[in-house]
Predict the 3D structure of the following.
Amino acid sequence: MVLGRTYSVALVGLNGYMVEVEADIGQTLPAFVILGLPDASLNEAKERIRSAAKNSGIPLSRRKITANLIPASLPKRGSGFDLAVTMAVLRAANDTRPSGRTVFIAELGLDGRLRPVRGILPAVMAAVQAGYPDIVVAQANYAEAALVPGANVSGYRTLARVAVDFGADPQNLALDFEPEDDDQEGDCPSAPGAVPDMADVSGQGDARRALEVAAAGAHHLLLTGPPGAGKTMLAERLPGLLPDLGDRESMEVTAIHSLCGLPSSMMQLLRRPPFENPHHSATSAAIIGGGSGLPRPGAASRAHRGVLFLDEAPEYERRVLDALRQPLESGELVIHRSAGTAAYPARFQLVLAANPCPCGKASGKGLECTCTAMMRRRYLARLSGPLLDRVDIQLQVDRVSLAEFGKSAAEEGTAAVAGRVKEARARQRGRLEAFGLETNSQVPGRILRGDLRLAPGTTRILDHSLERGVLTARGYDRVLRLAWTLADLGHRDAPDPDDIGQALGLRQAVAAAA
């Protein structure tokens, strides 16, 4: 007997690490030991592997089997190591030939069928980047794994087929299953639904303009107004205004969805920006990420390169809202747990919607409002000042008048607005490419006040607001970013004083209405 050796991938967050699997068959009493910090699901692989091998016609040795996963200091979790451990054990028993640098990622069923696992896309990406392009996965994971450029992917339905291709004697092996028993894991994703159209929104000229500006510059947005004013309708139409994702962005977004086990990641790259709309009862782990063991991504990471919409924002727990402050600045979530640390990208557009008070009737003259002044203050105080300071556009959305209601057919549709947004994004890329940036919302203050510095006369009203304490230094930079977006939409090379004034008005609309 020889030492068996195969390779697999361990995921920590979206980062993949190559794992070398060693297997040795001793001369002592029957036992099966897995070393290398396995979690519970990996420890259970011992029984899955024995049953799968027996039912495939290649039973394991009845002596002591020791499998070691290297590096031993790296925590291993999940059932994706099943196939790699099995192939290493079969090699140690001289039942197969050496597999070289082939990477095995699949779960085993008790009958010897290969089952799909989560996170195939980031795992294959990590293997290819590490110089291991030959990948073996379950057939249900094949389409997803093949999305990675440079990967030489082989998809199998049964353990016996894998063993035969690596030198096992095909005699007495259960190579295939009956068609009616074949896997049903590889369901095709459902067809995407129709994209909500901006033409459905009646009136709300200011809100429609704010939505266009937010889409053009990837700015965060707060919509405050009474129930039924159209806040949710507007927010749901923001993803339709955003341009398609590029190749790099698509890989990032699809990798996150693959890790979450979402079916839309199974067959093709996600080209449209995602839209996440969690309920206001969601916990911090659901929004930010977490869970037992190594933390998993939450709604904020699933909204990466897309929109995170928090309807009825004051109803969320304040600590959940304040936890968003860090990713709004850095575009990344780093979650620390006792079992390890995981980093997930989270560069999303935040859209908040809120009523003016608990009863929602404090807009306009507010004569029907039954809330006390203290109740209103407590309600809106759940949106902390530091969080609101990171929201570029803060708009008051009033009820639609009778003259505007029902005239949506005459309103501009999503296609026309998205065309202007695409042109504005192109202008931004041309200007910011030298800085390694893509949108105005990403431009740091040192560039705004350095290479992109405006004339003192242009920023006079903004300087005055900062001097009087109306704006913070962060707010000053965010108004400048808004002004650059307004200039891009207006096909101007740089903002003028009117752009600065409009940007300042968009940021202070809620405060002015209050």
